[in-house]
Design goal:
The chain is mostly helical and 112 residues long. The protein has five helices and two strands; from the N terminus they run E-E-H-H-H-H-H.
Length: 112
């Protein structure tokens, strides 16, 4: 990452993964989970669901929905987050392709 100074403030450019920038373990996994959580929140808003109604539809408690809305998705696996999206009426497509490097990477792309 390149560092530069703007108006006397040191600015560090992101790698594209804030979790990696913070040095957190499992940064790729956290990036995917946060992306799935964002899509759940967007879909809940689009469907105008309350926390209770969303929880019933997704098969999780209202408390877990509340945690999710506050950015705490640590108690939900990637698989459960995908299941929640499916239950909210979203299709999920996983594409596997050869990587241009020795080690591949995880990406999440949501339709606009």
């Amino acid at each position: 990452m390149k560092n530069k100074t703007i108006n006397g403030i040191a600015v560090e450019h992101s790698s594209g993964n804030v979790f990696a920038d913070l040095g957190l373990r499992d940064a790729d996994k956290l990036k995917i989970k946060s992306g799935l959580a964002i899509e759940i929140i967007k879909t809940m808003r689009l469907l105008d669901l309350s926390q209770v109604a969303a929880g019933k539809r997704m098969g999780i408690s209202q408390a877990k929905v509340s945690n999710l809305l506050r950015g705490d998705f640590t108690n939900l696996s990637e698989r459960k987050l995908m299941d929640c999206l499916n239950r909210l009426g979203c299709d999920i497509e996983i594409v596997i392709k050869p990587s241009g490097s020795e080690t591949g990477q995880l990406k999440l792309a949501a339709a606009e």
